[in-house]
């Protein structure tokens, strides 16, 4: 790890590389973001990381925007843009080329095989994301209960997730969640 | 409005030229889906593309999304680029991408600035603590929903691979590239072996 680089450059390198390993989407890469941002580079604390995740879930748009928040906290607006583009552009270009290739030579069995192989990996990664975030967010019984309640509500109903987030925010404001 | 496309047309949607979205339509449609997408944009993208604009059939949409899901990176970002470029080439890909990512990036950057300035205020700390609990709960429900088909099929091998990745990343906190470089070939090998045994 070379720390002589400017912060923008290290954001670009970090997220550009990470995007290529984000199997199953941005939420699968959260453990790696946490490892790099908190443990390796010390860009933010555990608590700040949990906050940033919460803010990214509260705001509209794709889940990947958590990297915008990380980028901002490292290097302001330039960092926010650099991190976002680094996380999106390499794989978007890849997707563009692969889709052109696949429309020409369809009926290959490999897409099906790769998909079947990657699904369990991405579920495992997202489960790990949930575990890592829960270890920071759920330090009290009340907090763990709020997490469990949100999980049940979101699984059993078709409620807009925003209402669940806001309700829990109100509970937090009221001091119910430690 | 196009008639229901035959299954053969899955790879490349064949809309009459007049029904093809323009660059501006691509930008605004994706911006609208993105800005209404709290907790993920996929459901809104499906509704917008398939039901509202009828730019793709449900089947075409599933195929396109499956492609974007097995490629690395943010799925819905990949989807916007693939979708836009199918109708309007590279410029279309840019327009859809800019619509999807641009407006929410502005919002998130403003929120980031507010957080940097006011993040230590006690009331905000408590609110965020509450929100982050629920955000983790939402993530758990997504994991659960994705696991159900594997449990339903009693796919023990896939569940074992899933559990191994969960432990390696979540408990042991190993670096992602190392874990994937081991897990992807292993998982592909298992799927190929299982399918081969199933067909012969």
Largest protein-protein interface: A-B, 111 and 96 residues
Mean pLDDT of chain B: 86
The fraction of residues in strands of chain A falls at under 5%
Mean pLDDT of chain A: 89
Q: Helix tally of chain A?
A: 7
Q: Which structural class do you get from the secondary structure elements of chain A? A: mainly alpha
What's the gyration radius of chain B in Å?
21 Å
Question: How is the secondary structure organized here?
Answer:
The complex is a heterodimer of chains A (178) and B (200).
Chain A: H1 7-19, H2 30-40, H3 46-58, H4 66-104, H5 110-137, H6 141-156, H7 161-173
Chain B: H1 23-36, H2 42-52, H3 58-70, H4 75-118, H5 122-152, H6 156-171, H7 176-199
Attribute tags:
heterodimer, A: 178 residues, mainly alpha, 7 helices, B: 200 residues, globular, disordered N terminus
Quick summary of this structure?
The complex is a heterodimer of chains A (178) and B (200). Chain A has 178 residues and is mainly α. Chain A is built from 7 helices and no strands.
Characterize the structure shown.
The complex is a heterodimer of chains A (178) and B (200). Chain A has 178 residues and is mostly helical. Helix content of chain A is 75%, strand content 0%. Chain A has helices at 7-19, 30-40, 46-58, 66-104, 110-137, 141-156, 161-173. In chain A, helix 1 (7-19) crosses helix 4 and helix 6 runs antiparallel to helix 7. The longest helix of chain A has 39 residues, at 66-104. Chain A is globular. The mean pLDDT of chain A is 89. With 200 residues, chain B is mainly alpha-helical. Chain B is 76% helix and 0% strand. Chain B is built from seven helices and no strands. Chain B has helices spanning 23-36, 42-52, 58-70, 75-118, 122-152, 156-171, 176-199. Chain B is globular. At the A-B interface, helix 1, helix 2, helix 3, helix 4 and helix 5 of A face helix 1, helix 3, helix 4, helix 5 and helix 6 of B.
């Amino acid at each position: 790890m070379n720390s002589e680089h400017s912060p923008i450059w290290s954001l670009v390198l970090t997220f550009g590389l990470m995007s290529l390993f984000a199997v199953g989407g941005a939420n699968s890469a959260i453990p790696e973001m946490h490892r790099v941002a908190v443990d390796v580079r010390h860009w933010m604390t555990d608590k700040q990381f949990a906050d940033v995740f919460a803010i990214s879930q509260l705001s509209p748009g794709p889940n990947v925007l958590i990297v915008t928040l990380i980028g901002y906290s490292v290097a302001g607006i330039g960092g926010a843009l650099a991190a976002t583009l680094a996380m999106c552009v390499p794989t978007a270009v890849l997707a563009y080329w692969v889709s052109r290739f696949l429309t020409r030579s369809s009926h290959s069995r490999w897409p099906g095989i790769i998909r079947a192989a990657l699904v369990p990996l991405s579920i495992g990664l997202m489960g790990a994301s949930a575990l890592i975030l829960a270890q920071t967010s759920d330090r009290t019984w009340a907090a763990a209960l709020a997490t469990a309640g949100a999980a049940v509500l979101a699984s059993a109903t078709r409620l807009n997730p925003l209402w669940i987030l806001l309700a829990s925010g109100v509970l937090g404001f009221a001091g119910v969640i430690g | 409005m196009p008639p229901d496309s035959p299954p053969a047309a899955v790879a490349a949607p064949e809309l009459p030229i007049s029904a093809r979205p323009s660059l501006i339509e691509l930008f605004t449609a994706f911006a609208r889906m993105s800005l209404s997408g709290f907790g993920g944009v996929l459901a809104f993208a499906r509704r917008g593309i398939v039901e509202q604009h009828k730019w793709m059939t449900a089947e075409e949409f599933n195929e396109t999304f499956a492609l974007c899901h097995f490629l690395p990176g943010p799925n819905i970002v990949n989807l916007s680029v693939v979708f836009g470029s199918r109708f309007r080439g590279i410029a279309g890909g840019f327009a859809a991408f800019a619509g999807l990512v641009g407006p929410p990036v502005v919002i998130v950057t403003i929120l980031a600035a507010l957080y940097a300035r006011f993040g230590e205020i006690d009331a905000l700390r408590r609110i965020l603590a509450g929100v982050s609990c629920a955000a983790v709960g939402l993530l758990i429900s997504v994991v659960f929903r994705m696991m159900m088909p594997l449990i339903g099929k009693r796919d023990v091998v896939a569940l074992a691979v899933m559990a191994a990745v969960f432990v390696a990343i979540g408990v042991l906190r190993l670096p992602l590239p190392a874990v994937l470089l081991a897990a992807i070939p292993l998982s592909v090998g298992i799927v190929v072996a299982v399918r081969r045994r199933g067909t012969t």
